[in-house]
Amino acid sequence: MHQHFRALGSGDRSAEAVAACLAAVSWWNQSVWSGMFADRRLLDRVLNRVLSRVLNRVLSRVLNRVGEIEADRNAAQVVSTGWGFGRGYQAVRKELRESVE
User: Among 38, 60, 70, 100, which is least packed by CB within 10 angstroms?
Assistant: First the structure.
């Protein structure tokens, strides 16, 4: 396998050298993966763990962002309606409005 990489490293870009290098990489990749994950259950566990971590991170970021948006909306609604200060604020507002009219 090393001879194929040396040929490419020395500047040999012929189709044969590239094909031989790709075949060597394919063989090595297949032998490593088949040896490492000969037990299908091990492969399933590894993939499930990796995918669950990735999905958890993505979902938590999305939900955090949605929560921030919802909190911003709620804050805007509180400010616009005056509910942030309780019902007493509404009563004072009403009295002021009536006194101006």
Answer: 100
One-letter amino acid of 20: A
Burial of 18 (0-12, 13-18, 19+ CB in 10 A): middle
Instruction: Find the Cα–Cα–Cα–Cα dihedral 8, 12, 14, 19, rounded to 10°.
Output: -20
Q: Which residue has the tokens 């509404």?
A: 90
Element containing residue 73 per DSSP (H, E): helix 40-81
Neighbours of 78 (CB within 10 A): 12
Query: Tens digit of pLDDT for each residue in 12-27?
Result: 566 676 777 677 777 7
Question: Encoding tokens for residue 82?
Answer: 């005056």
Q: What is this structure's pTM? A: 0.34
Amino acid, res. 74: N
Tell me how far apart the alpha carbons of residues 76 and 73 are, in angstroms, rounded to a whole number: 5
